[in-house]
Request: fold
Amino acid sequence: MAQAWKCSGLRWADSGPVLAWDGGRRSALTWGKRVAFGVADGGVRTCVGARGHACPVRAVVPGRSTGARCEECARLDRAHSVAADTIADDPRPYRVYLAWFGPGMVKVGITAEERGSARLLEQGAVCFSWLGLGPLMAARRTEELLRAALGVPDRIPYGDKRAVRSRLPASAPERAAEVEALHARAGALTAWPESLAREPCRVVDHVGVFGLTDLPAAAGEVTELAAGSGVNGKLLAAAGPDLHLDTGRGVVVLDTRLMRGWDLVPTAGEDGVTVPVREVKGEAGVQDGLF
Reply:
């Protein structure tokens, strides 16, 4: 029997996306690479724990959960999360950013300066610009200012991001236009915290990094993994936690967060997916009853 591995998620390195595995192993992902794995027969999905610690009861978690944590471990993880606004005394400097995911989809957020653009890659931001740099609470106040004064959200649903990746504007200037306009409007506001240093608008475009140029429309999205099922396809693009795979029967999007907590084994054979897949409606090239 092939050795089983547990995936700890998709990471973004300087060289591009990599799949990380428990124990430290990493698998670099390049366009055209075959992504093929199966879920061990008879297996169950177990909680991945919190803050680097294993779940004490190895709780079983639902296949559709992107967090892959039981209720108690999820609570512990959120209790030490800047994103959940539960930490107020972090001494590190933070950046405020505007991120664009597609037409009409711009969000404001913050990230620790030491992380660079990693947070933007993890979210699948097609392009972004920094707004300012300063202490955590000043960054938080600026984020709230933009939400209240300009109506800029701090979250964009992943389903909305996926729906537009194959039909983004063709040129970088077109993709940058909304970020530039909002950056200018934000700069005109007068209530910025004094401790936050403003940064000029310099839009960074990730279309090439993600491999989104000429990306075919998705025919389906994996909704969960299941014992005895599998995935086999050629990697066309990756954005945030998502892999866009050519399965030979259409492009299928796999959210790699669904892989966490399962025992996975390598497989071979023809392209295709036997995991549960939701057909994407209204996209070009979708066949009835594809999966």
Remarks:
- The helical segments are 71-78, 118-123, 136-150, 158-164, 172-187, 207-210.
